[in-house]
Amino acid sequence: MTQFTFELKHVFSYSATLSAPEIIGPVPDDIRVNFYVTGGDVWLPDGTKIGKLKPVGGDWLTIRRDNQGVLDVRATAQMNDGALLYVTYNGLVDLGEGGYDNLRSGKLPETAQIRAAPRVLTSSPTFAWLNTHQLFNVGEVNFPKGSVAYDVHAIQ
What is the pLDDT of residues 109-153, one digit of tens each? Predict the structure, then answer.
C-alpha cells in the first residue's frame, strides 16, 4: 500500500458573525437552514489582523437524519491591502444526538464542531498561492451568539 506524506500548516484564522437562522424547514429528504454572514475578521496565527469578512454570502446548510449538517458556504474576505478572496467550502457540522429532531422542533445545540475543506480564489498576487492549495478548516459554531470561528490549515 502506498503511503502519501503531507503536512498541515496553520495559515490563518477567522471568525464570522451570522444572521439568525432562516429555517426553511423539513423538505422531502432533510431540513434546510440558511445562515447569512454579517461580518467577521481574519488574522494570522500570531494574532495580526489581516482582513475582514464582508457582509455577503452565507451557509445554505442541509441537516441530515444522521444529525450531521452539510455545509455549503460561500463568502468574500477583504484583506487589509484591498485584495478580495472568494471562499467556498463544504464540510460537516456535528449537531449531536437528536440534532435532526431537535432542529425540527426549532432547537439548535449551543455549540457544534465543524470540519470543512475550503478553496480560495483570488486575483491578488500577494494571496495567489491560495489558488493552488487545498485548505482544511477546524472550527466551532456558537448558535446562541451567532458566530463561527475557524483555524485554517493548508495541506502541503
Answer: 999 999 999 999 999 999 999 999 999 999 999 999 999 999 999
Per-residue b/e over 66-91, b at no fewer than 16 CB within 10 Å?
ebbbebbbebebebeeebebebebeb
Q: Give the whole-angstrom CA distance, residue 49 versus residue 41.
A: 7
pTM: 0.91
- Residue indicated by cell numbers 478548516: 137
- Inside any domain, residue 151: yes
Predicted local confidence at residue 150, as pLDDT: 97
The domain in which residue 52 lies consists of 10-155
Joined grid coordinates for residue 92: 460537516
CB half-sphere exposure, 88, CA atoms < 13 A: 5
Return d(Cα 18, Cα 38) in angstroms, integer: 5
Note whether residue 4 is domain-resident.
Answer: no
